[in-house]
Task: structure prediction
Amino acid sequence: MGLLELNMDRLNEFFKNTNLNFWENQEIDKFVKNAFSVGYNKTVEDAFTKELGLIQLNFSYNDFFNLQKDKNVVRYFEKFINEEEDFDDILFYIAENNSEDFFKLYEDNFTSNSIDFSSLERSASFSPSEPSQYLEANYSLERNDNEEIDFSSIINELDKRISFAIRIKDLLVSNRDFGQDNLTNLNLINIIENQVKKNINQSEYFGKNGFLRHILNQSFELQKNTENFFNEDLLRTKEFFDKTLDQLQYLKKYIEDYRDRNLARRSSYTSRRNLEVVPSVEETYDILNFNKKPSLDKLTEKLGLSLNKGIFINTFAVNRIRNYRDDIKKIKSEVEPIINEWDEE
Result:
């Protein structure tokens, strides 16, 4: 077992077909998880220099984080982050409470020309921040938004719609065969064709034969239209209810996850708050002087956790925050009109 030379082609192959039964893939998996952890408990230098194990890299960290739009890599990251609950909680917390300040820091520190990438590689995790926002933290805790949203009423209404959609979908499925068998059977056509054969010597366009051929053509047209309905229109109707049901169930799960996350955080904040001490003279001085300048430490100080500057390079984590932020905005925009409508009633 020697060194494993890892280039971008080998890395892409790993994401497409991951088999951890081989030692090479086990080493790549360790490296990838370290890279995904940059900004949390790993620095750029940790993941790409210090803790490579048996791997010899033939690409830069920029090459790795430029894979942010590769579906296979994103899927691997999502599996990773779902197992790293503390890391994911930090990203969700930033998205929910401090996304504006985070992306302001992101623009200032990452996209500006002043950034020093070498210092980012050497940077360690930040030390515990000064609690200069002590009063603001307590105020935010007291005005928890969970108390302003009636989740039960929203979920109950969604349950009614889900139940209705399931009922209609089941009716479409259970009655399809019965309806199709009765409307598309060939009995009518067979009967008319037999009558045509009996009158084969009659004029094709006049008399009984002409009449029978006309209604036979109409029967064929009816048969064709009926089959088109069951093969196309009914299928589109079923697809509509499938899509509607998926959207309703997604919306319900999203609301429940949002509710549960906030309840868990509120409980965590309350526990931490009970352990807080009276701020020192220096801390009180910071409060009275309104030291509001955002910093990476201050964004997460209420969680008691910290990030390092590598988070700005970790495109997967940044996108996770961005997606959480957009989802939160979307759910609020969908829920607020319902609440306003109830208030008007």
